[in-house]
Write a structure and sequence with these properties.
By secondary structure, the protein is of the alpha+beta class. The chain has seven helices and 24 strands. A hairpin with a 2-residue loop joins strand 18 and strand 19. It folds into three domains: 134 residues, no CATH class; 38 residues, no CATH class; 83 residues, no CATH class.
Length: 319
């Protein structure tokens, strides 16, 4: 269900009511001859999109100053400000409805073409507002005008923010949006700086939900040499005699095999090579003269000679 919370999106500063009255006064003065007061056709440069705009889903009014510098977006106008202007008749704002694939919110997008710039308003509809316009089917798109894209030097993720709602884009979503260049800020909120005992001296910024970024010295220095956590056992491991597999050992001291995609997302941490990984088990199969090994990255049987070269068999239990 759509949220009932009203959210209005305008960018830039809101102009006060006095500015609206002043603008109306300027236009009123400019359309009369100083000498005779007779009506004249205004200069072409004044035939702009400036004025009041109504929306189809409610009583809200916006004012768009096409000629202003700096170029400002339309802003919401109070009833009192509209009354002060003499209740100038509003024009219907161009309206289309969109939603993103990952959320249920429907946005009304108003793009007012002007001579100097396009006035943009994006508004998240309440259910009552959607009902008022007879439940139009929105266009499903990842390209919502006014969306802000943010990247992080400490994370491979790109976030998109629409009216305060933040979503971490998948690669496919980012590509569908036209691969917009994000504004790169520091590290992602919630990221933790970690130095794994297995990957010394590298420092990684680990983000919630997976993924990490290996910091360069310049990055660490530019952020003021922030403190980091040093692990005692947690990190990445590989078997000396079967190094093709990589395991991650967490706080529970149990190894878990890491896929190649996970290793890439972790920014290629170098694994420490060890004879056995925490959580691996092996036993002597005396009946068959073999050693049975069960581990995070390798499981199988080996001969006694192979096992003697790879493992410490002293005190190994029988299967």
């Amino acid at each position: 269900m759509l949220t009932g919370r009203l959210r209005l999106a305008t960018r830039g500063r809101r102009m006060v009511s006095l500015a609206v009255v002043t603008v109306a006064s300027v236009f009123g003065m400019a359309t009369a001859s100083p000498a005779t007061g007779a009506d004249q056709t205004p200069p072409a440069i004044w035939l702009t999109a400036s004025g009041y705009y109504s929306v189809p889903y409610g009583p809200a009014l916006y004012y768009f100053g096409d000629f202003w510098y700096p170029q400002l977006p339309p802003y919401a106008v109070s009833y009192e400000a509209w009354a002060a202007s003499g209740f100038e008749a509003p024009r219907p704002a161009p309206t289309r409805y969109v939603k993103v694939p990952w959320a249920s919110t429907i946005y009304a997008v108003h793009e007012i073409p002007g001579r100097t710039h396009t006035g943009l308003v994006v508004h998240a509809l309440t259910f009552a507002e959607w009902q008022a316009v007879h439940f139009p089917t929105p266009e499903v798109t990842v390209r919502v005008p006014g969306a802000v894209y943010t990247g992080y030097s400490a994370s491979p993720e790109i976030d998109v923010t629409i009216l305060g709602d933040v979503h971490a884009l998948t690669l496919a979503e980012w590509q569908a949006a036209g691969m917009p260049a994000p504004e790169v800020v520091g590290w992602k909120p919630g990221a933790v700086l970690v130095r794994y005992v297995t990957s010394y001296p590298d420092i990684f910024a680990v983000v919630p939900g997976g993924g990490a970024h290996r910091l360069s010295y310049a990055e660490w220095a530019s952020w003021g040499f922030p403190a980091f956590e040093s692990t005692q056992a947690e990190g990445y491991y590989a078997l000396t005699w079967a190094p093709e597999g990589i395991a991650y050992v967490g706080e529970n001291l149990q190894g878990r095999q890491v896929s190649y995609a996970e290793w890439v997302a972790a920014d290629y941490p170098a694994p420490r090579q060890v004879p056995t990984i925490d959580g691996d088990r092996y036993c002597l199969d005396t009946a068959n003269g073999t050693v049975v090994y069960t581990g995070a990255t390798w499981s199988g049987t080996m001969t006694y000679d192979e096992a003697a070269q790879r493992l410490d068999l002293f005190g190994a239990p029988s299967c």
